[in-house]
Amino acid sequence: MRKKENEDLERLTVDDFKVVDKIPIVVILDQVRSSNNVGSIFRTSDALLITKICLCGITARPPDKEIHKTALGAENTVAWEYYLNTEEAILQLRNQGYSILAIEQVEGSISLNDYFPHPNQKLALIFGNEVKGVQQEVVNICDQTIEIPQFGTKHSLNIAVTAGIVLWDLFNKLKRT
User: Fold this and answer.
1) pLDDT confidence of 10, banded at 50, 70, 90?
2) Is 97 helix (H, G, I), strand (E, B) or coil?
3) Residue 89: which H helix or E strand, with range?
4) Average pLDDT estimate for 41-67
5) What percent of the chain lies above the pLDDT cut of 90?
6) What is the pLDDT of residue 176?
7) CA separation (Å) from 123 to 8, 102, 116, 146?
8) Is residue 7 part of a domain?
9) Could you point out which of 37, 83, 104, 111 has its C-alpha 20 to 30 Å from the C-alpha of 165?
10) Whole-prediction pTM
11) d(C-alpha 57, C-alpha 134), whole Å
12) Percent of the chain, pLDDT > 70?
């Protein structure tokens, strides 16, 4: 087996990426404090053709050397917008026909295994702060909440890991429909 070189991967150019059809998912980062997590989510969003990222509150935004270190340039390909607060982003996306889903452990949440979006459904997924998660006032105005099943002693995953799991799962479910 030979490890593939970059040329073998047939990746899109930056210009091609900007015009290719994206999957109808917007990522909302609610008060994320780590620029490295933000950069990682940019990189995952690039890989999975996510429509855009909304950076809210204290969440760092490009240009930022720590974002760039983990995004590896994806901060220049994935569309992004900044909002002073998460509620403002939610209102705008809801008016554009997006279903608003918090990725959080709450009463009545749906297991990621059991969540199947409707074909062509527009989703806005909210990922929260590394310590406090998605703010309660934000959870209160969401349409649904999704939770990743966990079976060990810890009760949470790193936000970048969580985003990777959820985005990959929903990318696959939307691509199949």
Assistant:
1) confident
2) coil
3) helix 86-95
4) 97
5) 90
6) 66
7) 32, 10, 11, 12
8) no
9) 83
10) 0.95
11) 12
12) 99
**CA R_g for the chain:** 16
What tokens were used for 123? 């989703």
Q: Report how far residue 83's alpha carbon sits from residue 79's, in angstroms, rounded to the nearest whole number.
A: 14
Q: Which domain holds residue 36?
A: 13-176
Up-side HSE of residue 4: CA atoms within 13 Å toward CB?
Answer: 6
Whether 86 and 31 have beta carbons less than 8 Å apart is answered as: yes
- Asked if residue 3 is part of any domain, the answer here is no
Number of domains in the chain: 1
Could you write out the DSSP letters of every residue in 102-161? EES--TTPEEGGG--PPTT--EEEEEEBTTTBS-HHHHTT-SEEEE----SS-S---HHH
163 class by beta-carbon count within 10 Å (0-12 exposed, 13-18 middle, 19+ buried)? buried
Residue 33 lies in a domain: yes
